[in-house]
């Protein structure tokens, strides 16, 4: 029987995870809409997706997966590719904008983690709280960015692959009605845990290595306290 402290720890973790999940989703979808808008497409703006309100971008299943599996997705931004001067490059740029924004947010989170770890008081409760928040933010943003590069609809990687290899579009159309359940089953079964976990860890450690060099931190200073 699990001790009550276990449930308290789980609840504490969710309280930390919830705000960083909202930030990760907001940044991801805002980036999609912003890049499409810059390419001349007014659709995201008309749909109200050029907003920093994360509630406009939430997908229920994707958000729950992000909280419990540290990998998930948001509600796709609707775009109109007719406005792009170059349709193929436009779709690829818009698709990659979301994951790229997550990697930027992860790097900034690690940078703040390093600054706080270097100059903050180890005995301060508030410092401890923010260290954990920044750590979770890095993990969640990397998880969201990497997961969305998988070439399965509705993830961003599927849009990129469809432009680079048009023959896959017919297959995507056949599985479209089942796409959400396919992703949920892949996550719940653990089929993606090892390859994505390896990719996430590699990116996290690489970004943390850059931060340690920039801040001249102790080279033996451990990575963030939250494992992927």
From TrEMBL:
Kindly list the cofactors needed: Zn(2+)
Membrane topology type, per the record?
Answer: Multi-pass membrane protein
Q: Which GO terms describe its cellular component?
A: plasma membrane
Q: What is its main location?
A: membrane
Task: Print the keywords alphabetically.
Answer: Cell membrane, Hydrolase, Membrane, Metal-binding, Metalloprotease, Protease, Transmembrane, Transmembrane helix, Zinc
- Give coiled-coil spans as residue ranges: none
Q: Which residues cross the membrane?
A: 14-35, 94-117, 129-150
One GO MF term on file is: metal ion binding
| InterPro entries with a match to the protein in the record | Metallopeptidase_M50B (IPR052348), Peptidase_M50 (IPR008915), Rip2-like (IPR044537)
The record's subcellular location field reads: Cell membrane
Domain named Peptidase M50 is located at 20-169
Tell me the Gene Ontology biological-process terms attached to this UniProt entry.
proteolysis
User: From what superkingdom does this record's organism come?
Assistant: Bacteria
A Pfam family hit: Peptidase_M50
Q: State the similarity comment.
A: Belongs to the peptidase M50B family.
- What is the protein name stated in its UniProt record? Site-2 protease family protein
Q: Which organism is it from?
A: Blautia pseudococcoides
């Amino acid at each position: 029987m699990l001790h009550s402290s276990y449930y308290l720890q789980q609840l504490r973790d969710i309280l930390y995870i919830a705000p960083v999940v909202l930030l990760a989703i907001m940044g991801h979808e805002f980036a999609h809409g912003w890049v499409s808008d810059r390419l001349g497409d007014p659709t995201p703006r008309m749909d109200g997706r050029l907003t920093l309100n994360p509630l406009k971008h939430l997908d229920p299943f994707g958000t729950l997966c992000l909280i419990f599996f540290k990998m998930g997705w948001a509600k796709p931004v609707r775009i109109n590719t007719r406005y792009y001067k170059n349709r193929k490059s436009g779709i690829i740029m818009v698709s990659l904008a979301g994951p790229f924004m997550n990697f930027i947010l992860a790097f900034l989170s690690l940078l703040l983690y390093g600054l706080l770890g270097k100059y903050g008081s180890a005995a301060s409760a508030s410092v401890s709280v923010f260290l954990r928040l920044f750590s979770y933010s890095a993990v969640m943003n990397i998880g969201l960015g990497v997961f969305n590069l998988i070439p399965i609809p509705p993830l961003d990687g599927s849009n990129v692959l469809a432009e680079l290899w048009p023959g896959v579009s017919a297959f995507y159309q056949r599985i479209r009605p089942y796409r959400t359940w396919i992703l949920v089953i892949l996550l719940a079964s653990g089929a993606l845990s090892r390859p994505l976990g390896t990719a996430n860890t590699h990116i996290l450690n690489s970004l943390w290595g850059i931060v340690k060099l920039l801040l001249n931190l102790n080279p033996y200073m451990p990575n963030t306290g939250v494992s992927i």
